[in-house]
Specification:
- The chain is globular and about 55 Å long.
- It has one domain (about 5-375): Creatine Kinase, Chain A, domain 2 (2-Layer Sandwich).
- The chain has helices at about 5-15, 40-50, 50-55, 75-95, 120-130, 135, 150-160, 165-175, 190-195, 210-220, 255-280, 290-300, 320-330, 330-335, 345-355, 360-375, and strands at about 20-30, 60, 65-70, 100-105, 140-150, 180, 180-185, 200, 235, 235-240, 245-250, 305-310, 315.
- It contains 16 helices and 13 strands.
- A hairpin with a 2-residue loop joins strand 6 and strand 7 (about 180-185).
- With about 375 residues, it is an alpha+beta fold.
């Protein structure tokens, strides 16, 4: 039986407020010595209940060696980041007290997915039962950003507009080059494992308005394809409970400074998309087959290769993706007081550079986990700038 209430979702969006922000970050749970994945989610969740704020903010994500931390609703991106910093500080302190380290690469570089346990919830048992290998293989870690958008039709149109920039956000965030004890040759192997394998995932078709979106979801319900809306795993989607547009395409970031820069950039992109929708000046929609060219380039080459200006049918250096998005969002960033300081190299580039410099894979991961702990565990500062 379906538990999806589309009418409540529509009402939630109609009564939403523009540009409220919520942040979700997913961390690997690690043995402090070996840095192997350890199934400690339930223990940390139970311990977090002794902290009223933290108890409301932690959540499970499929496997018992993963934990998610949520900022809750912030009235703007600044308050959401401030809340998330405090939740991170509490989570890292709790994990340390229980002999657990936290990792923030979008895949673990050597863990065996066959040894990971699915957490004991009805939802994730349903996911495993429905997807089997596809679910068990998905040992990945990401960052999701919710941005409030008032109006159901408007939220759908904002999602449509964001389709064009999702590959650029993925390239900027790419932070999963290693898997199964070696170099995958990809910059975001997480996206290949999750986005390219799960059903109803990746960049959705444009819908144009709420009625067409609802028609599709009702089709999924009527054909017993889904029973929960969370089984729609698109890279951008309207969130029916929160009244937000949720951007879900990015790898988790290894440092707090990178994560906060990415959150700020995503919020600016959503705000700019809303501006163009309101002013009726969105560009022509692009077919999925063209957008997928850029998704693949982001997966394979990250910021080292080329992306395509699909309206001009011209390639450009992927390293310019950040500059292009900053230029596109300049006006709304000024109005919302959003500053974005992107790192010179993304996580995948830095990890490969360390490997080329002579570090072993284990040493690269240890250094990355050290940077995660040093920056995310602070409550008031995002840590040193990453080059």
């Amino acid at each position: 039986m379906s538990v999806i209430d589309l009418e409540s979702g529509r009402v939630s969006l109609e009564h939403s407020s523009d540009f409220t922000v919520g942040i979700e970050e997913e961390f690997a749970l690690l043995d402090p010595v070996s840095l192997d994945l350890v199934p400690r989610y339930e223990a940390l969740r139970d311990a977090a209940l002794n902290d009223e704020l933290l108890g409301r903010s932690v959540a499970g994500e499929l496997i018992a060696s993963e934990i998610e931390i949520r900022s809750g609703r912030g009235e703007d991106v600044h308050s959401a980041i401030a809340a998330q910093r405090e939740m991170r500080r509490r989570l890292f302190a709790l994990a340390g007290a229980h002999g657990v380290k936290l990792g923030a690469t979008a895949t673990h570089p050597w863990a065996d997915y066959r040894k990971q346990q699915i957490i004991d919830t009805e939802h994730y048992h349903r996911v495993e039962d429905g997807l089997q290998y596809v679910a068990r293989r998905n040992n990945t870690f990401s960052v999701h950003v919710h941005v409030g958008i008032q109006g159901a039709d408007r939220a759908i149109k904002v999602c449509d507009r964001l389709r064009h920039v999702l590959p650029e956000l993925l390239a900027i965030s790419a932070n999963s080059p290693f898997l199964e004890g070696g170099d995958s040759g990809l910059h975001s192997v997480r996206t290949q494992i999750f986005t390219k394998s799960f059903p109803r995932c990746g960049i959705p078709d444009p819908f144009g308005d709420w009625s067409r979106f609802a028609q599709y979801v009702n089709f999924l319900i009527a054909t017993r394809s889904i029973v929960e809306y969370t089984q729609v795993w698109w890279s951008v989607r309207p969130h029916l409970s929160f009244g937000t547009v949720e951007v879900r395409i990015c790898d988790v970031q290894s440092t707090a400074a990178e994560s906060e820069a990415l959150v700020n950039l995503i919020v600016a992109c959503v705000a700019q998309a809303a501006r163009e929708v309101d002013e009726a000046r969105t560009p022509p929609e692009l077919p999925a087959r063209l957008l997928e060219e850029n998704v693949w380039r982001a997966i394979r080459y990250g910021l080292d290769g080329e992306l395509l200006d699909l309206h001009r049918a011209e390639p450009y250096p992927a390293r310019a993706a950040g500059e292009r998005l900053l230029g596109w969002t300049e006006e709304v960033r000024g109005e919302l007081g959003i500053e974005v300081q992107l790192a010179e190299l993304n996580g995948a580039q830095r990890q490969r550079a360390l490997l080329r410099d002579g570090m072993t894979l284990a040493e690269v991961y240890a250094a990355t986990v050290g940077a995660t702990e040093a920056t995310y565990s602070q409550s008031t500062e995002s840590g040193a700038e990453v080059k």
